[in-house]
What does this fold into?
Amino acid sequence: MPNYSPKDILRIAKRVNNAKRAYLLVNPLQAKHIPVSPSESLRMMNSLGSMLAEKYPGTKLVIGFAETATAIGAAVANRLAGDCVYLHTTREAVPEVERWILFSEEHSHAVEQKLCADKLDAWIDNTEHVIFVDDEISTGKTLMNMIRQLKERYPQLSDKGLVAASLLNRVSWENEQKLSDAGIHCEWLVKLTEDNAADAAALRAEEASPVKAVEYLYSRQTLDCGSLPDPRKGVSIKFYLECCERSARSFTETLGTALDGAGNIVVLGTEECMYPALILGRGLEANGFSVRCHATTRSPIGICGAPGYPIVSGNRLQSFYEERRDTYIYNISRCDALIVVSDVPFLRPGALNELIAAWAPFGCRRIFFLQGGNYVWHIQEPGC
It folds into this structure.
């Protein structure tokens, strides 16, 4: 299993328009804010999962935190038993869900998250441990708040092993003791003992600028595979991975010739939809393509050209999920083909038009939008 250090997975950036927290920890291997090889990203996530699988082999319920840890949680669950259920929190509207558990996330620009509770009772009963997965844990207050609410509704949770797992842990000894007293054990890939946030706080950074969209033409093609299940409602991790891989294979088999000569491909997830993009990216890498993955995000991060600063460019766009909501894309670079992977129920042309416009200066002329795992929208006239 690879060893990771703070140097490998930690960069510090400034937040904008957030009075509660002035900085953001950016992981260059997470495939969120910074483009990275999907295989490298999954290798890091799988390392955390393998460690947890050795210590907690009876785990059959993994809960990930939206939006940045959705792929990490899926990767962790995939290292456990095939019948492990993966469920992640969300900020999206999911009409099919009947019961939600709502909770607040401290320090976040989006205060409220929610967890689907439709089958949670049975899933808790069926596991020895519940593993909660985040990209980083700083104080543990958000997790304690969530678990307190869960125990009120599901008393049997007090008899389960509770694990707070993260790529990066910077919880103080005092707060770690509080978590332990509450029956929550911490596990991590990297422990951070120093807080050098002042390095970013002293920098001047600007907010991402909006783009001017132009209307484009699209045509839709159906792939020979089923749609992806929704981990917001809970999924068998084995089935979820099989669906992601089937979608990736179908895309490559159907559109492989359209990617001929593409020396550099970007696969872009949308907000909470990150794992399917990584699986597609890994599949393209296995077919000999050079691939980088990252994702749109709801986090407004400062842009700065200072040496070593992680976010050097960015755009503010319309969200694919909600028309009047901002989303951001950072560190755009030149590529021969762009593949956007999303789980939105329907395409918002305005959002896609803005995203294409953001890539227009970089000369990309092959753009695809993979929706729900089985529909591909071809951009017929990207005009770039």
Q: What stands out?
A: The longest helix spans residues 237-255.
